[in-house]
Structures
1.
Amino acid sequence: MIINKFEGLAVEAGIWEKTNFRSYAWSLVLITLISALPFFIHSQWITGPIINAVLIVTLFIGGLRPAIIASLIPSLMALQGGLLPVVLAPAIPFIMISNVILVLVIDFFCRDKSKITNYWYGLVVGASLKFVFLYFSVDLINKLLLNKNLSPIISQMMSWPQLITALLGGTMAYLIIKKSNTSTPSTLS
């Protein structure tokens, strides 16, 4: 009874027509995946590409908002799941921002969805900006660390592996999107 009233109100308000619930459902599944992943896999070289791929797939399936929300979650889960040691918690906001940078840049380049080169330009520029942002944030992050002996570890984590994992993740995302015939990249050839 309550559901019927809700559906009636939603139809009157035009919500059903404006909202693609399937896209949001898939986005929720992908966000759940990247939330759980750090609890099971404790390797930056495995989780990094998968998380970057999921962020990009979320962008193409659910849109910019779900992708930005998804960009904020992996770092917190990595901290809670043990992939990121607690003493490295000051790096979390920087990792979140770098994920948002990647998503925003790819979104910007892929607005003209008919050209494959736009995706690859977006990926390369987005991955590069993510890397540059994290690379130049290392000094500030190291100043925030309580244990200064961890500076070499954080410097290593925030340098070239970020570029490589973003590019690998973007390649994985392209293959997933292309294979799934998602509305955006399926037009890419």
2.
Amino acid sequence: MSEKNNKSSLVVIACVLSFGVEPRASSAFPAHSPKEARSSSRPELVAGKVWASNQLGYGQARPSTIYNGGDPTGRVEHIRWVDWGKAKAVGQGTAMYLGPNTTSVVDARNEPVTVVVWDICTCNGRRAYRNIEWFFPQHGQSFDATTYINMCTGDYASGKSDATRKKVQHTRPLAKRNHI
């Protein structure tokens, strides 16, 4: 034990023996463990809610898989999230990529993909990220906050006016951008 720790321990023992109380929390003596601190904070954000049948990951915190429930290109797996709980969280995973000359999912390849969730709201009574988008940077794609799926409604925003938004039940986000 270091000399500093010995002195700190002696101060605690002296306070307890003299006054019957422990000193206030400090960096040497945190009030709560990190686990206790997390449990007392507000509920963890989730990824929207389930909005169609056969979906995975929606309505969950830090999902490792997101699946829209139909076409295999609407599935991202092995997601590792960064900054979950902040205004925008980014994940890295794998998904089926349909190249510009690919006409069928049979010819699609599983490739690294970037997933972004953002726009914190209340969804189905829970704190949630509202929007999701994924893209393949190695193919020249990048984050576009105007093209996404609303994870609370299933509506697809295509980067155009609100009149062009439509419900997507079993398709992947960025279908049009996948063919760049």
3.
Amino acid sequence: MMKSDENIKLDKMKNITSKIQNPNILELGVKKGKSTRMFLDICEKNNGYLTSIDIDDCSKILKHPKWNFIHSSDDNFDYINKLIKKDYDILLIDSLHEPNHIKKIFYNYFKFLKLNGIIFIDDVIWLPYVKGEARDNDFSERINRLTFDQIVRIYNSNKESLSLEIDFTGSGLAIFKKKNNQLNEDKKVINRMFTLKNLIKNIYAPKPKK
């Protein structure tokens, strides 16, 4: 039986996280708890600890001595920043899938991540949602394109501080690695594809010979 795209991405996160001893993990977005259970399985084996934050009350989905649940919006920084410590190995961003929100929480929680810590961001690829594909959805295509662009802007402005890998499985998974503590404000990546000069080039470009 073939694994779902979601399970393939969970396995990727599990393989990376499992290599860390005594992992301290911060999860933004719990929902039904699939990633929560996966992380707790690692915490049991590797003597780690998981803190999860969700705007919905997910405290009753499970009980575990290595789990702390914070019932709050993950951008309520005045509240949350007093409850967490600056020593996380793993950060999963899987709450509100909206580019401005992702930027806001990326920049806040980055300072709570250890050097060489990993940031996972789920739902960054638009391809499954384009017209004619299985999940054809105009809104999801648009929001994931904007999210992808936001991630590229963050990386492009911080190549000395971050490495970036993109997994295109399903709706995608971005994997950042923190290389140093400096984080610059993101800058727009200039796209020259739609300048007048390039539009004219496309119109008058020679046609390939058959």
4.
Amino acid sequence: MKLNRALSLVEILVAIVILSLAVGPMFHVLTTSNKVTNASAYEVMAVHYASELSEQIQRLGPFFRQISLAASKNLKDILEDPLFLFELDKSGNNPDGGPRIVKIPGTSVAFLVSALHNNFLSRTLYVKSLNKPISDPNALLTTGKLWDVTISLAWKLSPGDPITHMASYSVVVRED
């Protein structure tokens, strides 16, 4: 006598449930991993955007006094000039996608900045003086004016993302 081996509908349903219990968490891990990787990519872009500005600002350090005298403004007023910040923020709208030159009004100074990725909402600068009276005559930082220049960027992971991600990077500059 020959036995017919077949799977019943109950056995098939149990196998599907067991398989879905195993595959479901793996699918969740993969989608979460993708979101984290995407978020990291934007953080790396933010570091790039901030470092390109901070490097140019640091290179200008020895000339800030001359620039301030020529513009009749202090460094804070120069770097926080609304027209400059507007142009800096607008640099994401470069049609060819390449870097562009952003001039500081009233000076001959210009920055070369990368176009922002479409998901970036803003790029701005905040400047504050770090000079305080120094009582120790042997202190290293007794000459020049010190400024904290903070570069802030904001972005969304996708156009419909309800969360605005932000990062701020600071550089200390000495105006000789």
